[in-house]
Write a sequence for this structure.
């Protein structure tokens, strides 16, 4: 891995608001940003389209996509024929949790980073305003960083990976403010778990509620259009 590898960053770009802001922050720091988007068999492809649009808008150095069919495992409302909850954000891990998703995604992003000579991995996880997913927590990110050091050629040769989670301790309102500060078109991103037939976000799933609440708390207008009855 070249000596300037810390200047090259591999960003896990889902197409959501958080990953968009994380990628933009990496670009703002002057990193050579290469994005990886994973098509994991989610029931809708809207977020994949969003990731492509974000990569173009940010002028990233590269954008790669990989297919990984997690529908074969099931167990989540995002990959199986299970209703997405619409009754508010609860305190337990919801059925929209995809088994070990960030563990799998970070492993793939680490392989991607090592293959392109990137010494920095960027992920937009958030430990405050989230739906209780265990793979968004700081202790998970720290443990994975150690696993990546021990389990890669780059790591054992002393040229491992810095894992940046710049949004980890920000509220959704803080993230909305960062998007505004960075001048991002938030309408390019997508967060909804259950898009309507007319192409609008549902406005009722956990992800929609958290995002809408964040923009409202920040006193900002989201670039996405929501159904009038949910605004």
């Amino acid at each position: 891995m070249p000596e300037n590898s810390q200047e090259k960053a591999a960003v896990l770009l889902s197409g959501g608001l958080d990953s968009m802001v994380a990628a933009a922050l990496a670009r703002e720091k002057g990193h050579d940003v290469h994005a990886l988007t994973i098509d994991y068999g989610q029931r809708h492809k809207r977020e994949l389209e969003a990731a492509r649009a974000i990569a173009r808008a940010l002028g990233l150095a590269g954008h790669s996509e990989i297919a990984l069919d997690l529908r074969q495992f099931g167990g989540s409302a995002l990959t199986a024929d299970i209703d997405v909850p619409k009754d508010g954000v609860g305190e337990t891990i919801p059925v929209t949790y995809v088994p070990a998703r960030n563990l799998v995604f970070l492993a793939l992003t680490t392989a991607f980073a090592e293959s392109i000579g990137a010494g920095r991995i960027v992920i937009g996880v958030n430990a405050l305003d989230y739906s209780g997913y265990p793979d968004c927590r700081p202790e998970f990110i720290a443990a994975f960083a150690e696993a990546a050091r021990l389990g890669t050629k780059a790591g054992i040769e002393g040229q491992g990976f810095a894992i940046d989670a710049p949004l980890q301790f920000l509220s959704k309102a803080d993230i909305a403010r960062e998007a505004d500060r960075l001048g991002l078109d938030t309408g390019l991103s997508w967060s909804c778990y259950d898009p309507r037939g007319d192409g609008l976000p549902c406005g009722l799933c956990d992800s929609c509620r958290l995002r809408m609440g964040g923009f409202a708390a920040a006193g900002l207008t989201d670039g996405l259009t929501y159904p009038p009855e949910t605004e």
Summary: The beta strands are 8-12, 32-39, 62-67, 120-122, 162-164. The first helix runs from residue 17 to 28. The domain at 8-172 is CATH 3.40.50.620 (Rossmann fold). The two ends are 49 Å apart (CA to CA).
